[in-house]
Amino acid sequence: MKIVLANPRGFCAGVNMAILTVEEALKIVGTPLYVYHEIVHNRHVVDRFVHEGVTFVDTIDEVPAGATVIFSAHGVSPAVRQAAKDRGCTMIDATCPLVTKVHMEAVRYARQGFNILLVGHAGHDEVEGTVGEAPGAITIVESPEDVDKLPFTQDDKLVYLTQTTLSMDDANRIINAIKARYPQVKQPPSEDICYATTNRQHAVRALAESVDLVLVVGSKNSSNSVRLTEISETTGTRAHLLDDKRELQSEWFDGVNLVLVTAGASAPEYLVQEIIQELIDTHGGEAEESHVVEENMHFNLPVSLRVLAKSNA
Q1: 37 occurs within a structural domain
Q2: Looking at the structure, do residues 141 and 56 belong to the same domain, yes or no?
Q3: Domain residues for 32?
Q4: Where does dimethylallyl diphosphate bind (predicted)?
Q5: Sequence-ordered list of residues with C-beta below 8 angstroms from that of 8, at least 6 positions apart, any chain
Q6: Domain end among 181, 214, 239
Q7: Residue 188 lies in a domain
Q8: Do the annotations mark residue 124 as ligand-binding?
Q9: Pick from 136, 151, 181: which residue ends a domain?
């Protein structure tokens, strides 16, 4: 059996920055250390930090007064920041800069009197954070059908923004429906779907048609990982989303000669390599890289972390 490794795959710059932020914070302040929501949507990453003494919380009320709290890569609302400030917490912001960009757009358009159509998944951490920036101005749109139910007219000031981890195809279907009903809708000055999401989707779309099976390494609550699975299936190729090698099932490989392996933007590379080795050990064959898009993006660690390091030096 031949195994093709999609490149790019795995950690994006935002995820890498967020994980490094927690690692550095552990060195600087030790434990207890609190993280608001999962730092990234990957079970193995979260479990590792829990083992190292990190406490993940769903509300700021769970963080003791005066403790250090890190905000996850998906971003938080101003209300969460204020709640942490009211408790006297030391705050470290590991929000991905590309998510911060969407937050700033939401604030700017709300101040200009726009009704904001946020294309994304209700309940997702990133969407909740963005809505919190301008709750009275934002309407979440999850599907083209939702567009038909919107109460706005062609005289209203409208702009659309998108969750950064959406499928480009899904987002475009919704955006096209918005434009068809509201020709006056304003679009953001640059694409909101992040480069890493776009690149990983492009790689799967380019490679999936030529293989018998696609394996996507990632957790079930990782939006971008789920999208990779869905994109593969739109090409007509079966796909499975799995956290690690323990979830491999022998029946998946009946009649399979060529497998594509990729990983969502929050999945560690060592999990990919373990799956590759398991496939080689079980089915024989070899693995080779297929480079579709080159990435060289890097995000600096949060300023708040660097300030904390100096104060504790």
Answers
A1: yes
A2: no
A3: 13-96+299-311
A4: 41, 74, 124, 222-224, 266
A5: 196, 199, 200, 203, 292, 293, 294, 295
A6: 181
A7: no
A8: yes
A9: 181
**106 shares a domain with 87:** no
Both 17 and 7 in one domain: the answer is no
Residue 242 counted as domain residue: yes
Strand partners, 139: 117
**Which CATH number fits the domain that encloses residue 269?**
3.40.1010.20
Going from the first residue of the chain to its last (313 residues), give the mean pLDDT of each consecutive group of 10, the final group possibly shorter: 96 96 96 97 97 98 98 96 98 96 97 98 96 97 97 97 92 97 95 92 96 98 94 96 97 96 97 97 93 93 88 78
pTM of the predicted protein model: 0.93
Catalytic residue list contains 251: no
Instruction: Find out whether 37 is annotated in a ligand binding site.
Output: no
Residue 186 in domain? no
164 known ligand binder: yes
Has 72 been labeled as part of a binding site?
no
**Residue 96 marked ligand-binding:** yes
Selected catalytic residue, list 105, 126, 128, 133: 126
Report the DSSP beta bridge partners of residue 69: 34, 91
